[in-house]
């Protein structure tokens, strides 16, 4: 009886981990400075040209058919866009991060391919690439 329980609980754990890997997908956000020397490292990024770290107060991930953009810290008014591989803007909005910390973008209707999430606020430009 105990071995069946262990087997079933192990199987459920494996299925859950596998399912979350298929459903949840983090988008690596980095500064859009055109510098190929920038090395992304989670939410905190380390520029390979210097030893200083810069904090990027935005995360993004895909859950099912939704893209969630989370502003960890308010940055004022931010422009959020999704651009396809050809450079066509397929989604755009402006958000006041002082009152809204997370936005949800429906990915329904977008064809399979590579896209770029672009976020701009004050003098900062961020981007993150993802595929559907």
What is the straight-line distance between the termini? 43 Å
Into how many domains do the coordinates divide?
Answer: 1
Give the uncertain stretches in residue-range form.
11-24, 35-53
Summed up, the helix count is 1
Largest sheet: 5 strands, antiparallel
The helix content, as a percent range, equals 10-25%
Number of strands: 12
CATH class: Mainly Beta
| Share in β-strands | over 45%
Q: Average pLDDT value? A: 75
The CATH architecture is: Sandwich
User: Numbering strands along the chain, what is their spatial order in the largest sheet?
Assistant: 2-12-11-8-9
Radius of gyration: 18 Å
* Secondary-structure element pattern, one letter each: HEEEEEEEEEEEE
Please name the CATH topology. Immunoglobulin-like
Secondary structure layout plus pairing:
Layout: H1 2-23, E1 24-27, E2 30-31, E3 38-39, E4 44-47, E5 53-55, E6 58-63, E7 66-71, E8 77-84, E9 89-96, E10 102-106, E11 114-121, E12 124-131
Antiparallel strand pairs: 1-6, 2-12, 3-4, 4-5, 6-7, 7-10, 8-9, 8-11, 11-12
């Amino acid at each position: 009886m105990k071995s069946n329980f262990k087997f079933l609980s192990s199987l459920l754990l494996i299925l859950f981990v596998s399912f979350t890997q298929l459903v949840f997908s983090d988008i690596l956000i980095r500064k859009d400075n055109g510098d190929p020397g920038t090395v992304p490292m989670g939410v905190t990024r380390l520029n390979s040209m210097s030893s200083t770290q810069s904090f990027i107060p935005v995360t993004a991930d895909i859950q099912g058919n939704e893209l969630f953009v989370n502003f960890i810290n308010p940055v004022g008014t931010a422009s959020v866009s999704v651009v396809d591989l050809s450079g066509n803007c397929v989604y755009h909005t402006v958000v006041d991060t002082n009152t809204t910390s997370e936005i949800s973008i429906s990915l329904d209707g977008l064809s399979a391919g590579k896209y770029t999430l672009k976020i701009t606020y004050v003098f900062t430009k961020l981007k993150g690439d993802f595929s559907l």
